Each structure stands twice: as C-alpha cells, then as structure tokens.
Amino acid sequence: MGSLHHEEADLVTKVCEIYHKISKLETLKPSTDVNTLFTELVTTCIPPSSINITTLPQTIQETRSKLIRLCGEAEGHLEAHFSTLLASYPNPLNHLDVFPYYSNYLKLSQLEFDILIQHYSTHDQPDVVVPKRVAFVGSGPLPLTSIVLASYHLKQASFHNYDIDHSANTMASRLISSDDDLSKRMFFHTMDIMEVTDGLKEYDVVFLAALVGMDIDEKVKVIKHLAKYMAPGAVLMLRSAHGARAFLYPVVNPEDLQGFEVLSIFHPQDEVINSVVIARKDPVAVDTDHNHHHQLGIGSILPSCCKYGDFQASNNPLNQMNIIEELAMEE
C-alpha cells in the first residue's frame, strides 16, 4: 500500500480491520455486534474518497470480494428480519419506516425515478414518457424499491419481482397482500433470471439489484443475458458504487454494459450509498459475445438530456444532492 496516500492507506487499514471482525462473527443475523460492525463499516466508506479500488493490491481485492459477500449476506438477514416484523402488522405498508434505512430507499427511488423519466421514451412511441411494465431482478424479502416506485412514482405500472429464493418471495408478497392497489400490480416470480428468456422482452424497464452478481464476472454474465433477451430500446437501471463505497457493493463500468448504450452514471455523495447507472438496450439486436464497439454504442451519449443542469429546474432531490456525473467515456 506504499503508493496510496496517507488517508487512503488509513481507510484500507480500517476497512480490513472491520472485515476481520465481521468474518469472525458466528452469524450475520441482526444483533448488537452485527449492527455495530456494519454501521462502522458504512460510516467508514460513505465519505467521498478518491480511492481507486482497481489499483489496490491483490490481497486487498480478495478481502474486498469477501467483504461484499458478507455485506450481501447480512443485508439479506436484515431484510428478512424486518419483512417478518412488518408482516405482523395488519397493514404492513403503513409501517415501512420501522426499517432503519427506509429514508435512504425513499431518496434512492426518487433519484432513480427522476433519472429514468429524464431518459425514458420508447423508440416506436417517443411521446410515451412513463413505463408500464417494470421488472426488478433480485427483489428479496423486503422489495422496498418496487414498493416505493409503485406507490409514489409509477402508479399505473405493473412490477414483476424476480428472486431465486422462494422464501424471500413468500415474505415479500405477504407485505403487499393487504394493499388493494399493489396486490393487483405487483407480482413475484421465483426464478433464476438466467433462465428467463422471451419473458424479458415484455418489460419497458429492468432494474438490477446491486447484489445480483456479487463480483463483476457474475454481474457481466447477467448483463449479457439481459442484453440478449430484453426488448430493443428497453431501459436497464443498475446500481453501482464509487470511491470507498466500492468496498460495500460491486462496481459496474461502462465497458461492462456491452449491448447497451450507457446514458448516465450518477454518484450521490450523501447517505444514499449506491451509484445509479442507466443504459438503453441497443435498438438493433447485436451479438453481445463479440466486441463490436461501433455497434454497441458504448460512449454514445444522448447530447442534451444527460447534463446535470437539466435536472436543476425541476423540483426533485437531485437539487439537494451533490452528484457527480461521469460522461467521459472512451469511444
């Protein structure tokens, strides 16, 4: 770590210390010890940092990979715990704020909605500005993004939630069963998304959860599958991470999105941890197994609607967030 700045070296040391403590825990289910360590980890990784994860030594890269998996496992336990708790209420959706990170989901969903609508239109119907059918891949036992988007932002859209875990879908569907509106618009499919083919063509927008594909090789396989089967012109929304937050979640770069036109990448710098990546499936079907970059539109940016300034006028949380937008992509 000799090449790292003093602050970055301190950060890496601190993260590794927390990792070793987490890795010694008997269980990652919510408890005082688990909560304390993960809170310390998030607090360490949230401040803006110029650290470049890809330049770290191999041993640190391996620690990061293990840490992301532990974070994913802990997040699954946390969501299952609160989904069970919420299901004990007669109207679970009235009590979502018992989940400690609910306000983050409200902000992230608002951010994703604003970015989506800024870029959304179908090629055959340019005047259509709101998606009607949305898929969320990796929805889990507490599908807060789907619930918030369906409740506040996309009030006419149907949401198809995919998770490989049957028990997660059972818990999730229990939360919305008592809601007259959402129970008619929200569906749960217990399937590996890699086995969904023609069904993917039905969706205007596909959201890919941050922890579907916990390393970039796994994630790229999923992205290639989506590139093959999503409808031409459909929108893909992914979550990524930036700076020290990459110790918590996998990073998705533009070159990982072959078969898609990358429209924007946003890096919030507040308590919303995930970066947001929006991409559009190429209108012309391409063979994603070959690097035909001239066909893939990597770096082909929509000229006017990608600028941060376009968001300033509308009243949305982007005004309050310090967001960096990366538009310098290689041709």
Automatic annotation (TrEMBL):
Which ranges of the sequence are coiled-coil? none
Q: Which GO molecular-function terms appear in the entry?
A: nicotianamine synthase activity
- EC number(s) in its UniProt entry? 2.5.1.43
Keyword line: S-adenosyl-L-methionine, Transferase
**SUPFAM superfamilies given for it?**
S-adenosyl-L-methionine-dependent methyltransferases
Task: Tell me where on the tree of life, at the top rank, the source sits.
Answer: Eukaryota
User: Catalyses which reaction?
Assistant: 3 S-adenosyl-L-methionine = nicotianamine + 3 S-methyl-5'-thioadenosine + 3 H(+)
InterPro entries in UniProt? Nicotian_synth, SAM-dependent_MTases_sf
BP GO terms, sorted: nicotianamine biosynthetic process
The reply to whether Transferase figures as a keyword in the UniProt entry is yes
Q: What family does the Swiss-Prot or TrEMBL record give for this protein?
A: Belongs to the nicotianamine synthase (NAS)-like family.
Q: What does this protein do?
A: Synthesizes nicotianamine, a polyamine which serves as a sensor for the physiological iron status within the plant, and/or might be involved in the transport of iron.
What name does this protein carry?
Nicotianamine synthase
Gene encoding the protein: NAS
